[in-house]
Amino acid sequence: MIPENVMNEPSWYESSARARINGLLDADSFSEILGPVDRVMSPHLALFDLPPAFDDGMIIGRGSIDGRSVAVAAQEGQFMGGTFAEVSGAKLVGLLRAVARSAGTPQAVSTVFLLLDTGGVRLQEANAGEMAVSETIRAILDVRKAGVPVVALIGGRAGAFGGGGLVTACCSHIIISEQGRISVSGPEVIETNKGVEEFDSRDRALVWRVTGGRSRVLLGGADAYVKGDIASFRKSAAQVSNSVPSFSLQTLEQEQERLEQRLQAYGGCRDTPEIWTIAGLPTPDGIADLTEDEFIRLLAKEGIRHDAR
Amino acid sequence: MMPDNLISVLFPEGHSLSSGAENTLSGQARSGGKDVEVLGINNGAPLGPETAIILAGHVLEIIKSNSKAPIVFLINTASQRMTRRDEMLGLNEYLAHLAKSITLAGASGHRTISVLYGTAAAGAFIATALATQTMIAVDGAHPSVMDLPSIARVTKLPLDVLAEKAKETPVFAPGVEPLAATGAVTEIWKLSDGQCAERLSVLLADEPVSDIDTRDVLGASRGGRKVALEIAKRVEDAFLHISVSEKAG
Questions:
Q1: B65 chain-A contacts, CB cut-off 8 A
Q2: Which of A45, A137, A193, B6 is 20 to 30 A away from residue A55, measured at CA?
Q3: CB neighbours of residue B16 within 10 Å
Q4: Is residue B171 situated within a structural domain?
Q5: Residue numbers of the domain that contains B202
């Protein structure tokens, strides 16, 4: 059952990228860069008789949260699946490079928020999109090196798939809701390549058990879990401090250890309830059935932290 | 199986490379009188968590040794491994961890070069060859994001129509040439021309190398990505301008 006060809040999952930005930032604080009025559109979609969008599904700019200056980028999952492409990618990369360049100057921002909602690379521009993912990763790491945290917010309809899954895991801190999904190959892609026995993409419960927000935060693929309303995302985003891990040898050594241990402990498992059993969680078969409040209490009780990334 | 021919062509001055678990290889070699660390993935193996974590572990050990030695990656992988189990375990984190480790090596003063001699696709391409400062494609290299039949399925276009469109633009077609046009592949070498060892030692000698990502500059000059560089620059300028005007206001 969804509590009433949450039910009445606008949902992150249902909202557009612009509505998410408006709900995340202080009122009227958003200054968009290369917005729809500039009509910077994909030059490649015409070849496929597809309509372009005036913002190419990537909304970027700066604003504030509780008065702190921040940079923000949001993918519109309803346009071409929120994909990484030449224009959308260059907008994101340009923003990240500007943040790295301005670090330590009066123009600096305190944090970068990436509102990812993406199926991965846009196949109509596959090579440009692949490069955009690689350049985004490089630029995120440069921002982190400059001492500015990069925070991913995951809870959109398109999830964070393909290169979007890698980009997410390169961020300093990941906030996710139950609806958020993170993966490299999507269930449909695995089913197409390996058969329905390997992954039945129509089994929604299975898909969420493998890629969904609850499993990700329990296993270490996300750091903070929030209810699916925009206000909860905002509250969690406002709490991110500068104590998130820096991009350093020490952090990566800790991540190496964390990922080695995960593989050792759970490498033989086929489904998440097997993992939760080994991990000693109560009701390993019923994680999906817990209410949001019960799940959040479970997380707090287990004291689960995985922030070496 | 080790790529013996490639290794002997690149490192005629000698090496101590050996194959390891999960289709990896590692060791040291000499190039232009210099000690070079070499890592690799063999056999066109799909990149799963096990292979990624072994390679990342080697990279972190090299950074920790403080040698600042160049690292050459010999890449022949497939796509990321596509299984439910790997995704459940967080394959995205393992691939990102490998990309981060290679990027950290570059940022820590190690010259990082990938030599692509086989396939590399999608997430496996991003996590390995695309994470290095310089990518060399040699005989047998076939980088891709997705193969044309799969793109045809997703875009719902007949394969022959798609193949025809691929001739008009390098923006989506698989292969060395289109990916070189977008700035992914830095140089294309031919193993039989007798100059690869020399070329590699020249690349390794030009230090200190800047760790700035200039692949969009390359993509613009080669015509494979005509607008990315210009848009990124416009955004950078606008971002700095907004903050200045806010301050003034």
A1: none
A2: A137
A3: 11
A4: no
A5: 4-141+185-208
Contact (CB, 8 A) for A12 and A230: yes
- Collect all residues of chain A within an 8 Å Cβ-Cβ radius of residue B85: 269-270
Instruction: State ipTM.
Output: 0.97
Cα dihedral A295, A296, A298, A303 in deg (nearest 10) = 150
Q: To probe the interface with A, which of B63, B92, B97, B214 has the most A CB atoms within 10 Å?
A: B92
Note the pLDDT of residue A31: 97
For residue A221, the distance in angstroms to the closest alpha carbon of chain B comes to 7
B91 neighbourhood in chain A, CB within 8 Å:
165, 183-185
Predicted confidence band at A306 (pLDDT cuts at 50, 70, 90)? low
pLDDT digits (tens, 9 = 90+) for A120-137: 999 999 999 999 999 999
Residue of B nearest to A34 (CA): B235
- Chain B residues whose CB is inside 8 A of the A48 CB are 155, 157, 165
Of B60, B153, B243, the CB nearest to A107: B243
- Is residue B130 domain-resident? yes
Of the candidates B87, B215, B239, which has its C-beta nearest A62's C-beta? B239
pLDDT higher than threshold 70 for residue A1:
no
Distance from CA of B86 to the nearest CA of A (A): 9
- Tell me the two tokens of residue B235: 């955004």
What angle do the packed helices A86-102 and A126-145 form, to 10 degrees?
10
What number is the average pLDDT over the span A48-58? 96
Residue B68 covered by a domain: yes
Name which of A122, A184, A199, A208 to mutate to probe chain B: the one with the most chain B Cβ atoms within 10 A of its Cβ: A184
Q: How many helices (H) and strands (E) does chain B have?
A: 11, 9
Task: State mean pLDDT over A257-281.
Answer: 96
- Mean confidence (pLDDT) of chain A: 94
Residue A4: pLDDT band by 50, 70, 90 thresholds? low
Q: Per-residue pLDDT for A107 more than 60? A: yes
Query: In chain B, what residues touch A61 (CB-CB under 8 Å)?
Result: 242
Asked whether the beta carbons of B87 and A159 are under 8 A apart, the reply is no
Alpha carbons A239 and A259: distance in angstroms, whole number: 26
Tokens of residue A104, six digits: 């330590």
Please report, for chain A, the start and end positions of each structural domain, with discontinuous segments joined by +.
4-247
pLDDT of residue B245: 47
Does any domain span residue B59? yes
CB-CB neighbors (< 8 A) of A130 in chain B: 122, 125-126, 130, 145, 184
- CATH 3.90.226.10 matches A4-247: yes
Q: Which residues contact B182 (CB under 8 A, 6 or more apart)?
A: A127, A128, A131, B170, B171, B215, B219, B222, B224, B225
B71-80 and B34-47 beta bridge pairing: parallel
